Amino acid sequence: MSIESPEIHQPSTATPKELLASTLFLLARAGMAIKTRTLDELEKAGFGMYQYSVLALLGEGDLPTQRLIASELGLDRSQLVGVLDGLEERGLIMRRRDPDDRRRHTVSLTPEGKRELVRIRTMIARLEDSALKALDGESRQALHAALERIVVDNDWCGPAR
Amino acid sequence: MSIESPEIHQPSTATPKELLASTLFLLARAGMAIKTRTLDELEKAGFGMYQYSVLALLGEGDLPTQRLIASELGLDRSQLVGVLDGLEERGLIMRRRDPDDRRRHTVSLTPEGKRELVRIRTMIARLEDSALKALDGESRQALHAALERIVVDNDWCGPAR
DNA sequence: TATTGTTATACTCTATAACTATA
DNA sequence: TATAGTTATAGAGTATAACAATA
How confident is the model at residue B4 (pLDDT cuts 50, 70, 90)? Predict the structure, then answer.
């Protein structure tokens, strides 16, 4: 069934069957949709993707320099500045000059930052439940295992490149 | 094991374990990586993602208006103009005025456009083999089925939104 | 007046380079 | 001089608005 009815066009936009038959396409489509949806939810809470990434990273411990944070997240140190500014203005992180090397800033979560991180994690967990609700527990486990193998095998563990 | 060794920083960028444990994150990560990798390969052949999308869409048959193509691909009709220009300059598509309504352009693939589409499909098939090589046939089938259920259940069949 | 394709404009992201203060 | 953080600049990509031809 080819694309017809030039006048009756609601936001129909059925995806071509050829593409739905491709596992690669399904993966890309699902990945993009998840990213978009997560970004939407984050924005409702006033955050960008990088701001969440910073909170999540700092949730594992303070980091001694901004350069290191940038490198971990795969972005330039100059881009990171604005991200941190936004978080600092809201009192979620703290920059402290390193007394031993006054060029450096040690960055850490404030107590409020830790609470915010928990809220975001809860939101994302809800999102995951919602996105995967069509799969039973066993299928979810299999999906997770398959994705993990793919990500590791292709060395996609680092930041997007 | 927290992040240490501030001086010894190669492009290490190990992804936090918390994130690797999330199926949603793995999906997003894999999807993004696939999109980036496909885009890279397309660019080597001198195409953008939308140009490929147009070729793939027209591969299923001519379309009577540019507006319809734009709507199918989920972009604005003004954005589509430049995409089509590039394809037309290279002789891969043809715009023909509709004699019954001279505002409209019917767009179709040229023979060379059809050949180019075949080449791109071959390239993407190679990419899929490479990306999924860690999975055996059975796992691939299960992965495909799971992704299909997710995409349909969440109504992610249309263009990215 | 409404619609099709087009052009022009503005806004967001990101990537790069230049600047300062420290070492 | 080299490095950490910052600021400024430029480019791609995209979203919106204005425009000319046709209905």
Answer: very low
Considering only residues 107 to 126 of chain A, which have any Cβ-Cβ distance to chain B shorter than 8 Å? 124
- For A140, the token pair is 């979810």
Q: Which residue of B has its CA nearest to A151?
A: B30
Instruction: Please give the single-letter amino acid code of residue A104.
Output: R
Torsion over CA of B146, B147, B149 and B155, rounded to 10 degrees? 160
Using one digit for the tens of pLDDT, what is the confidence trace for A70-122? 999 989 999 999 999 999 999 999 999 999 999 999 999 999 999 999 999 99
pLDDT, tens digit, 9 for 90 and up, residues B53-97: 999 999 999 999 999 999 999 999 999 999 999 999 999 999 999
Tell me the residue length of chain A.
161
Task: Nearest by CB to A26, from B22, B28, B148: name it.
Answer: B148
The alpha-carbon radius of gyration of chain B (Å, integer) is: 20
B146 vs A contacts (CB less than 8 Å): 135, 139, 142-143, 146
d(CA A42, CA A23) in angstroms, rounded, equals 28
> Between helices B77-89 and B49-58, what is the axis angle to 10°?
80
Task: State the CB neighbour count (10 A cutoff) for residue B76.
Answer: 11
Instruction: Give Rg (Cα) of chain A.
Output: 20
Environment class of A34 (CB within 10 Å of its CB; exposed 0-12, middle 13-18, buried 19+): buried
